[in-house]
Specification:
The complex is a heterodimer of chains A (about 280) and B (about 230). Chain A is mainly alpha-helical. Chain A is built from ten helices and two strands. In chain A, helix 1 runs antiparallel to helix 9, helix 2 packs antiparallel against helix 3 and helix 8 packs across helix 9. Helices cover about 40% and strands about 25% of the residues of chain B. Chain B is built from eleven helices and ten strands. Classes of the chains: A mainly alpha (about 280), B alpha/beta (about 230).
Chain lengths: ~280, ~230
């Protein structure tokens, strides 16, 4: 096989990891609370700025800045739920879309006001790893590994703990979990915190590869929504698979043609799949 | 043990229950019978807090519970087997049971309770890793009852446990009610299957269009002409 194609495929897999992590968070929130956080990618942006300032301006150790970012975005997730979602939870779904859509513009404008439109870089350059004649960015490899580890940790949390089991149960039948002693509001808060923390984790991984600016959410936000819909909204495994499908299309398309054209392929693939499998790639 | 005094409830402007009062003494099994749409399910949902009542009061062992949310009512010792079972069909049998022991006090005893439920329903033990949605109707009902027992309740509410089951399985379910009772659990059961439910309960109430029409021991009701004509086809 062509060695450059192999490199493209590998990079596609590595890119898929972080996308899968974000799709997981969005699907978790949709599955449990039945709400789509349009501003999800912009929560990642908030986390990236926090790491940038803590690490590059205040000289915190990188890992400590990451922990702070995960906690910070987790709290942001709770705030999004308490301040924006909870008051309109029982109303028409369009209200929730509009409200979190409003949050997107709020966060982007607020970041512009606070930080300006400069592209900021934390200045960490991780080495390029060479296997034979394949070159792989170790930042991407790290991002992939941590993202998959995060997904596995979430899997065990959902499978093995009482709260995790309640989260899976509430996604199936929200009206009766109270009869089992489960406080719905508490589960919603935990889910929002986990969704936020996953966005915070993604921020730690993305800051190593990309410059942060107020509109960085726009570069991968739409892609994550596409991945979630492609996998079937609320279907966490479907979203996970769809993340790698999309990243492969982008990586291989980018190898044969160009990165710009590869996004055209990805979106075309998405539209065609919506006709063929409207309920998700893995739907029966 | 459980006492309902002058309950009125409904959905929005649609009133379902009118001034319903009933008593469930400790250690007894009490039935509520009546036709479709009489408000039997609403009555159960009012007790477990899923439907807010408009007037009246509910007390469990002398403590008022009518303003508590559902998860707090479970903590007071009332478990509810809902109409149509409502299992989490894409969760395993064991996960369905474990979630019944969600509240902090029950969690520590989860393993013990699980053993107890598996002793009661050995078929569930064989199928513990299976998805609940793949169980037969009778097994699903057992799983739903088992899930309610996991919180180690004092009072068990059962909403139409025989609905949609084959006659042989219905007999098994009623036999089970009998066994649960002999463990000292208090039971309030809602049924359309009048003949069979009167065989397992001590006392029963007849609910028609949201009002209690008759009340008495099961022997009295079995001998009542109106019940015999309208509900037993005799």
């Amino acid at each position: 096989m062509d060695i450059y194609l192999l490199e493209a495929i590998l990079n596609g897999i590595l890119l898929g990891g972080v996308l899968a992590l974000l799709a997981l968070g969005l699907n978790l929130i949709f599955g449990v609370i039945d709400v789509v956080w349009i501003a999800y990618a912009d929560l990642v942006m908030c986390g990236m700025y926090l790491i940038y300032y803590l690490y590059a301006e205040f000289n915190w150790p990188f890992l400590l800045a990451c922990v702070a970012a995960i906690a910070f975005v987790g709290v942001l997730g709770i705030l999004v739920h308490v301040m924006i979602i909870a008051p309109i939870l029982g109303t028409a779904p369009i209200n929730q879309l509009l409200a979190t859509g409003g949050l997107l513009f709020f966060l982007q404008s607020f970041a512009t006001l606070l930080f300006g439109t400069d592209f900021r870089n934390i200045g960490v350059r991780l080495p390029i790893i060479r296997f034979d004649s394949i070159y792989i960015s170790s930042a991407r490899l790290l991002a992939f590994t941590v993202a998959v580890a995060g997904a596995v940790a979430l899997y065990f949390f959902l499978k093995r703990t009482f709260v995790g089991t309640a989260i899976r149960a509430i996604a199936q039948d929200r009206d009766i979990v109270g009869l089992m002693g489960v406080d719905q509001r508490h589960i919603y808060l935990v889910t929002s915190a986990i969704g936020g923390a996953l966005a915070g984790l993604a921020a730690c991984l993305l800051i190593l590869q990309y410059d942060v600016h107020p509109f960085i959410g726009n570069t991968f936000g739409p892609l994550i929504f596409m991945i979630c819909v492609l996998g079937g909204l609320g279907d966490m495994i479907g979203g996970f698979v769809a993340a790698f499908l999309m990243s492969q299309i982008i990586a291989i398309g980018g190898y044969y043609f160009s990165t710009e054209l590869s996004y055209v392929f990805a979106f075309t693939f998405f539209i065609v799949l919506m006709f063929l499998r409207p309920h998700g790639v893995l739907s029966r | 043990m459980l006492s309902l005094a002058g309950i009125s409830a409904g959905y929005g402007s649609f009133q379902v229950l009118f001034d319903v009062s009933l008593e469930v003494p400790r250690g007894e099994a009490v039935g509520v019978i009546g036709p479709n749409g009489a408000g039997k399910t609403t009555l159960m949902r009012v007790i477990s807090g899923l439907v807010q009542l408009q007037t009246g009061g509910i007390s469990l062992e002398g403590r008022r519970i009518e303003r508590l949310p559902p998860h707090r009512i479970v903590e007071q010792g009332i478990a509810h087997v809902p109409e149509n079972r409502r299992l989490f069909s894409r969760l395993s049998v064991e996960d369905n049971l474990r979630i019944g022991a969600y509240m902090p006090r029950a969690r520590q005893d989860c393993a013990k309770q699980l053993e107890r439920v598996y002793d009661l329903f050995s078929r569930l033990k064989d199928r513990r890793q299976q998805l609940a949605g793949t169980l037969s109707g009778g097994e699903q009902q057992m799983c739903a009852i088992g899930r309610a027992l996991m919180s180690n309740p004092k009072l068990l509410l059962m909403d139409e446990p025989s609905a949609g089951l084959a006659p042989l399985v219905v007999a098994q379910v009623f036999d089970l009610v009998h066994r649960i009772r002999s463990d000292g659990l208090t039971v309030l059961i809602v049924e359309q299957n009048v003949q069979q439910v009167l065989d397992v309960v001590d006392r029963a109430y007849l609910l028609e269009v949201g009002k209690i029409k008759l009340a008495g021991t099961s022997a009295e009701l079995k001998g009542n002409d109106f019940i015999r004509k309208s509900y037993m086809g005799l």
